[in-house]
Predict the 3D structure of the following.
Amino acid sequence: MIAKQRTTGILLASLIFVVLISGCSQPSNNQPSTNQQPSAAPISGSPQTFSVYESQGAGIKLKYPSDWIKKENVGGVTVAFLASKTGNSDKFQENVNIIIQKSENITLKDYVDQTVKQLSTTSDAFLIESKETALNSNPAHKFVYKIDGPSLSIQALQIISIKNNNIYMFTYTAENAIYPDYLDKVNEMISSFEFIG
């Protein structure tokens, strides 16, 4: 029971953090934060240039758009990548964040069932897609859902995988109208994701 409550808490924290880290409070000048560390050299070969994020401590490695801001260890999030704001009227900073938590012996199926239940009881969240997938060849589950707020409607793609007693949550969040615009970049990030160490 405690594991289920903790898992539900992780899901809620993830949903809430998606909104908080999203840039509603980000500086409009898009300058990197002082805690941002230099990234590896950009990877070219496509119209979009990517850099590589690697953390031995977190046991992950992936590519991310070079023009996105990287923030580590913010509010329980292992790493977040924030797209540049498109102007002063941009209310939301599209982002990808990765949360890693201990799994406390919960199975992926149990976690998925709890997530579906939690989304169905949240009045402003609407599940669009729920299906099995893989993250770096590890069993995973993909959710796409929409959250309607009083002044903002956002859409999120979340991939959840459990490996070595850790829950890995990869979440892309964007304003509903802009959500498709970043999917190619996000899919590149997902396909480059590796468990390391």
Remarks:
- The longest strand covers residues 125-135.
- Residues 2-21 form the longest helix (20 residues).
- The radius of gyration is 16 Å.
